[in-house]
UniProtKB/TrEMBL annotation:
This is EF-hand domain-containing family member C2-like. Pfam families: DM10_dom. It comes from the Eukaryota. It comes from Diaphorina citri (Asian citrus psyllid). Residues 11-116 form the DM10 domain. Keywords: Cell projection, Cytoplasm, Cytoskeleton, Repeat. Residues 130-151 are annotated as: Disordered. One of its GO terms (biological process) is regulation of neuron projection development. The keyword Repeat applies. One of its GO terms (cellular component) is microtubule. Residues 140-151 have a biased composition (Basic and acidic residues). The gene is LOC103505836. It is found in: Cytoplasm, Cytoskeleton, Cilium axoneme. InterPro entries: DM10_dom (IPR006602), EFHC1/EFHC2/EFHB (IPR040193).
């Protein structure tokens, strides 16, 4: 006889957690770290973990899959991470980086509750000083009045990230008849 948890295991195989880690930087004035937001995926079928960072335009940081899907050992004990090691408010150390879990999706919340794990309320993400500084400069640029000097860049901004494509063909028939 199947229990409700067995049915859930076959329906969805992934627990999803929102987390962040602080990446220290040294050469920028005004702040000493960047807050990087990630998704931690825990696959129930084989207890593997994957960490993905959503891409942010023009961040200057390599983003995407930070840790490929694999089983990871807990640094202190040497045992592998398991479902009960993940919860809101927990700090998880993966390959020397300290990830702080702030939230989880509805399926994950319900799954952990069915296992008897008490799931805390979502925590707020800390603010990122770099993004605050960057958004402040972008806002000040967008608030100013457009001048004639800015009109020459209007088309450049309008067609940014669009693909320019030409179709054509090379006709050698006329040239060969002349020779």
């Amino acid at each position: 006889m199947r229990t409700p948890i067995d049915v859930v295991l076959f329906t969805f195989n992934i627990l999803t957690f929102d987390a962040y880690f602080k990446d220290l930087i040294h050469s920028v004035q005004g702040y000493d770290h960047v807050v990087r937001k990630v998704k931690i995926l825990f696959y129930l079928e084989d207890s593997t973990i994957k960490v993905v960072e959503p891409k942010v335009d023009n961040s200057g940081i390599a983003q995407g899959c930070l840790i490929g899907r694999q089983r990871i050992k807990i640094p202190e004990s040497g045992a592998f991470y398991d479902v009960i090691d993940f919860n809101i408010g927990e700090n998880i150390v993966l390959f020397g980086r300290n990830f702080h879990i702030t939230n989880c999706d509805t399926f994950t919340r319900n799954f952990l509750r069915r296992l008897g794990v008490r799931v805390a309320e979502p925590l707020s993400m800390p603010s990122d000083p770099y993004l605050e500084l960057r958004n402040g400069t972008m806002k000040s640029k967008s608030d100013r009045d457009p001048s004639p000097r800015d009109d020459k860049f209007k088309k450049f901004i309008e067609y940014d990230k669009k693909i320019l494509r030409f179709k054509g063909y090379w006709d050698e028939n006329e040239r060969q008849s002349v020779l």
